[in-house]
Amino acid sequence: MDMIEPLSRSSNLINADDCFIIIIDVQEAFIQGLTREEQTVFMRKYRHLIKLASVLKIPLIVTAEDIQKNGSIPDALLQSLAPNVQVYDKFIYSCWGQKDIQNTIKNTRKTVAVLCGFETDVCVGQTAIDLLENGYQVCVLVDMTFSRNHFEHEIGLKRMEYHGVILSILKSWQEEITSGVRTSIHQILKENDLHTI
User: Per the domain annotation, does 39 fall within a domain?
Assistant: First the structure.
């Protein structure tokens, strides 16, 4: 089958080659605040995102807040990570505010940060605003980003959107970087059973 790539792309659309992903503080201590059904969907989407990053060679940064106190990310996600992906022990709410994580972000040499994790109004929000301030375009996957309750989640989203963060969901972002049903990226995702979410 012949591949058909887009003739042009708006500068307002996100390209896979420009992206890096930060998964922020997806730890049992926070996940337990979700319903059992939410946890199941949540974990499935995170495993999908981790595999997609590996297949498309999108740099992936993973953090966990104060691992000694809160534990690392769940084993199901740890086992999904490529061997070269480390989990950063994070003590500053904003990922940009911690030197080792900031250096890793800079070393990606990418311009679009795709964020998800806990909590919308604290670590995700502060990271997003710091990254915007430092010249990055920021996209937050709303369906993979949570706070302890709906009110805090909504306030966090409003604050980020006010500052210029792009709000999206996993499906929409994936289709945006894929561009079409016969593009080379779509074919790669299809071969790896990632074309649907």
Answer: yes
